[in-house]
Amino acid sequence: MQAKKKSAKERGVAMFMAIFALLLLTAIAAGFVFMANTETAINANYRSSQQAYFAAKAGLEEARARIGVGIGDITAPAKSGLPALPTATPNTSTAQVVYIINPRGSETVAPWDPSNQYWDDSLCKANYPGLALDYGSAGIPCAGTAPTGTAWYASTNSTLPGVGTANAFPMKWARISLKTNRASSPKTASGGYPTSVNCIGTDCADSTANDVTICWDGDKQILLPSGYTNCATPPAGSTNEYRPVYLLTAMAVVPTGPNARSRRVLTMEVADDPPFFSNSAINSQDYVTLNGSLRIDGYDYCSCQCTETTKGSTTTYTCTDRSGTTCIRDKYAIYSNSGVDKPANSALVTAGTSPVIAENQSFKYDLDRLIDRYRNMANAVDVSLKTYRNSTTGGTKNSSGEVCGLGVSGCSEVYGYNCGGGDTNCDTQSNQFFGVPPVLPPDPPSAPVEVSGAPAEKQVTYVPGDLKLTSSAKGNGVLVVEGNLEINGGMEFYGLIIVKGVVKFTGGGSDKTNIYGSVLAGQSALDQVVVGGSASIKYNRCALENTTGAQPPRMLNTREMNF
């Protein structure tokens, strides 16, 4: 009887435990659901953020492409129906800020209007004194105040797919303007600008240089030099050219989804590489040996009109200004880090410098950086790879004007050099085209006549090893050889030749070697630079002026505006 009493007291415990277990399982299940929802939300948020990021990146790349030399449609002077490329620092009088807008459907994208949902609230951070905007606080968007009037900006529609439709890219606008000394420099609490180009110590708080244009010298950003009105035009007496740095900014906003209105703002600084002007017709880091019937001239063929008069055993070389130009006479014929074997009587070496041959000089150039600059260009051609070209003329178009490529008639696949092996030797190649030169000698020098049926085409050519050229090679633009180069059998080239090792012009054929531009050679542990045969190398500034052809400007840096 006692056992039965005990059982009665415990009645319902099992049910309680079952209910408790059920509640516990329910709580665990609810936790899993919550965790799953949280993870889904995080993933959706990340995806939305990434969509906005890459849409803004697309806006930057569109702006970069549209200001590219030879490929862009935003130019100076302006093309019909399009805004002009900014050429001065932003101000309220002229349109020195260009917006590329990308509306979705019927919405209005007006970054110049503070009441618009896509208002450019990062413009004040660019520190343009001419727009009279208050920088505000660091890390905080600009106040809702626009520059005075409407003359300060111009706009054009995006060329991204779907512009004006419901399927438009989330990129809303991209801004193009010149970079000035403190454009996009974050202002510190003390009022300084720590990333200014000329910021040194207490100068960081100085605002007098805010509106100075920034130039690109090919290696670094610099302030517009004294005497220059713009980066690309040197004053009288100077031959150094630079290129302006442009500040690009783009905003993207994701329009739909669980995280609609996700926004990213990115900036990018870009600039075209300025032309590379050597200080001589031949510049060598190694010893130079001259032999054969040579003609090496440091006078600038583009600006100097030269005549050669021989009386008996005496040859007089006289150079005067070409019409409309001033003869450039400060380039050596040969500039060597080592010695130079003086030419025989059959050679003629001339220049406006004294002496015409500079020996045992310090080598002024960083060959590795120069090679990296050119081989990494968007339009560089690596000869170890296959590419389509018109093999008859060497051009990139067939006789009908079509760009050569897979399936295009009148074109063939060329290059594809076998540069394998430990010495990366690219073997011996004959009848090669590295771009199409004009008729040589170039006449008129500033706009030489093109070869009939083969319009002149510039090309940046990269050779990843030693190369020997025979049988009348031709080229235009830049030829970069990351090894030694031997030219045997003639060559016509218009532009810049850069060789990491040594160069040998050894003759061996009836064709003459004609190079208008400059040759830059490095050093070899086993050999030396040899200039022989029947070679003519003339310094030519016009040939060096635009060697790289059409391509987008170089990206110098990029970052995100985090507010």
Describe this structure in words.
It is built from four helices and 32 strands. The chain is α/β, with parallel strands linked by helices. The chain folds into two domains: 44-192 and 246-274, no CATH class; 280-384 and 419-545, no CATH class. Strands 9, 11, 14, 16, 17, 18, 22, 23, 25, 27, 29 and 31 form a twelve-stranded parallel β-sheet that branches.
- Report the total helices: 4
Helix content: 10-25%
Largest sheet: 12 strands, parallel
Q: Distance between the terminal alpha carbons, to the nearest Å?
A: 79 Å
What fraction strand? 25-35%
What count of structural domains? 2
Number of strands: 32
Task: Please tag this protein with its features.
about 575 residues, alpha/beta, twelve-stranded parallel β-sheet, seven-stranded parallel β-sheet, about 30% strand
Please give the structural blueprint:
Blueprint: H1 2-9, H2 13-66, E1 97-101, E2 153-157, E3 171-178, E4 214-216, E5 221-223, E6 243-244, E7 246-253, E8 263-271, E9 280-284, E10 288-290, E11 293-297, E12 304-311, E13 314-321, E14 332-336, E15 340-341, E16 348-350, E17 357-358, H3 367-375, E18 381-382, E19 386-389, E20 412-415, E21 425-430, E22 433-434, E23 459-463, E24 466-470, E25 473-481, E26 485-488, E27 491-499, E28 503-505, E29 513-521, E30 529-531, E31 534-539, H4 541-545, E32 554-560
Parallel strand pairs: 1-2, 9-14, 9-29, 10-15, 10-30, 11-16, 11-31, 14-17, 18-23, 21-24, 22-25, 23-25, 24-26, 25-27, 26-28, 27-29, 28-30, 29-31
Antiparallel strand pairs: 1-3, 3-7, 4-5, 4-6, 7-8, 8-32, 12-13, 19-20
